[in-house]
Design a protein that fits this description.
mainly alpha, three-stranded antiparallel sheet
């Protein structure tokens, strides 16, 4: 509920000031709040923590690592 309220306030602030980025950020925050509500209603438990450097096997011969904000990376070939 908190995300939805903050998002609505942010959206309105963006509309009043004419700042489209703030308005869209508010709408995105509202969507996050709605997604959290739906997950809670469905009984989905949030992950305790995300392993930032876990190995994700997408192809049989290449190791792909998730590296956080930069996205997946492939180890350089020697």
């Amino acid at each position: 509920m908190k995300d939805k309220i903050q998002g609505k306030a942010e959206e309105l602030k963006g509309r009043v000031t004419g700042d489209r980025a703030t308005e869209l950020k508010g709408k995105a925050r509202q969507a996050v709040g709605e997604a959290k509500r739906v997950a809670r209603d469905l009984g989905v438990e949030p992950a305790e923590h995300r392993d930032e450097d876990r190995v994700v096997d997408r192809t049989p011969d290449a190791e792909v690592r998730e590296s956080g904000p930069g996205g997946p990376t492939r180890p350089s070939d020697p």
